Amino acid sequence: MDSSVTQLEQHLVVFTMAERLLSELKQPYSQQALAQISQETFANFPRYLNVSYFQLTNNQQLTALHTTRKTSAKPATNLSELGIKQVIQSNKLLFSIPYYEANDGSLRMAISYLSQLSNAQPPLLMVAEINLNSQYNPWRYNILDKGMEILVTQKPRIKDQYWSLYHTAPKSLHGDLGKAYNQPMPPAFVAYVNKSVQKATGRPVDKYLQSDGVSIYTNRTQGIANVRVGISYNKHFNTFIAVRVPLKTIYNEVSNFASWIGAFGLLTIVATFFITRHLYRLDIGYKNKLYQQANFDKLTKLANRYFFDNTLVNEQIHNQGRYTLLCIDLDNFKHINDRFGRHTGDKTLQLIAERISQSCPSNALPVRTGGDEFFVILQTVDRSISSSLARNILNAIEQTMMLDNLQLSITASIGIYHADEHIDPQTAEIYAEIAMFEAKKLKNRYCFFDKGLAEQLHQRVDIETELKHAIENKELYLTYQPQICSAHGSVKGVEVLLRWHNRKLGLIAPDKFIPIAEETGLIADIGEFVIQQALYDYAQNLKYTEISLSINVSAYQLMYTPLFDILKHHVEHYQISPNRVILEVTESIFIEDKGAVQGLFEKLMSYGFLISLDDFGTGYSSLSQMRDYPIHELKIDRSFITHIHEKDQDAALLHQIVSIAKCHDIVTVAEGIEVTAQHEIVRTLGIDIEQGYLHAKPLEIDALKAYLAANTLTQKACC
């Protein structure tokens, strides 16, 4: 008995192994792959077990793919030939009705498993046929004590129709062994069992169909020897298992009672095994789920911060710390989140993660550590390999994305650090980030770490920390640089320039703290402070003049803050005409949505505000922007002016820019006029306005008032 139970358990284990291997089978599956599964799982049962694989079509027909049969018997072509009379379900083992093999007359029972490997392919059916006549069959009849009977039945969809799966005395039901399994059980016998069960237990047999359960009762039917009966129902296989043993056997021999328990357990172990297997799978599944949650990012499916930290430690220990770390940060990703919402931002991150992963070789691990920051751990310190990988990642990321009918483009900046055994993982990460921040100054490029960058990072951290409190600590203030009419020398306007003097860091140049303010979003509050303070100063000190007030606004302010409402509120509050206010925007605005930018410009200009394109020639724009956008003024970057008196080609280029601007009735402004020779050439070329140290340095408001009072041409019209 024990050996039979053990063999049965072994059967179920190998079926589970085959089930797992089938679920992992890759498309398209081949005969070689199917044969390998059979070899790996069923090789120990060759004498009474045949394994076949079929494709199951929509009309329930079978197409043979592979079999371990040694005979030339024709394979089954439909489910009924395999004794399957129930609805077969995917990913679920099924016992079928025993049937006789025409080729050798053997009684066989199929255990089937249907695997839906792909929606594009027909389901794959695995059938393991057990020869019930074999002396090696663990379910053979001679294992039970005398007088003990076991009956296993299955109820297909037809009402009150039961089929025998296993019976210790099959002839007793039909009188003919050939009919014992190929037709339903006799209706009279079914009715008798129903009546007996309900009389003894108070429950009809159909009640057992509602849940798994076991009942044991004594059958004292007149004319039949008293017997003890155990009946159970297994929902998984839709089977009833009944065990019957004479009472006198139980009374006379305790050992026989133990045998009865063993016999009952032999057949119910099927249900027990699957319950145990289910619980085991739940446990394994739960552990796998916890492992996934602990080690992998839910959104992108890449390794997460926890996995990243552990991997760095392992590289330090097992690879002598010789690895390369790439820090990848998306450029202006916050704009996507703010403009299109978190949903689009998440989809963008998923696509970026996929592109990074596809760019990595087999010896590289991509990781998402949080937000829009990614890392790649590369198991080499070869500079050429890390450079090539960085270029591939940048090229992949910058490809245009289509998300929810939106066409988006984004770039990234990458920092690279080659670690060695003397650097701990935390420091390696910091060094890679330092290099990334350096690359971010120009964006869409990569940069290698060097020690000089570490000091720059410390400065950046200090600036960002102090900048957060600059407004409340009253450390920000404004200066105004006069703009001079080239033709007459009169003051046409002033440009508002922000200054910051921190009690800890001292005076910090705008090109040091303004980029950090834009990257961190602090520019929103700082920009509103500039607008409010500049209009206040203008109302208090310059309202009597007719000069213009030029205020720099960032792309972030334009696209992600209520800029129009802020401006409108303050000009109305201080009673300043909007056409006195010129908004200077940089060419970076043109990487944003063109339609949205045009709409915002038109809204501002329709109210009276004027638009000036600052630093022209250094960024994304071209001369075509003068035609496509409602631009009032063009500020030519100082890089075009610096050598204009030394290089004829610079003057020729400047002449072309001015000519095109005049064709569009756009006012031109030259920045960086510092020597008289520059002034003379600019005036000759017809540039309207000059700005630079030759005329005046940036002045605080009181100094500006004195400057204007001394300049008698302040009120004279220029352009």
TrEMBL record:
Residue ranges annotated for the GGDEF domain, each copy included: 321-451
Gene3D superfamilies: 3.30.70.270, EAL domain
Boundaries of every EAL domain copy: 460-712
Record Pfam families: EAL, GGDEF
Residue intervals passing through the bilayer: 257-280
First and last residue of the signal peptide: none
PROSITE patterns found in the cross-reference section: EAL, GGDEF
Keywords associated with the record: Membrane, Transmembrane, Transmembrane helix
Superkingdom of this protein's organism: Bacteria
Classification via NCBIfam families: GGDEF
PANTHER family on file: CYCLIC DI-GMP PHOSPHODIESTERASE PDEF (PTHR33121), SIGNALING PROTEIN YKOW (PTHR33121:SF70)
Name of the protein: EAL domain-containing protein
Organism the protein comes from: Pseudoalteromonas spongiae
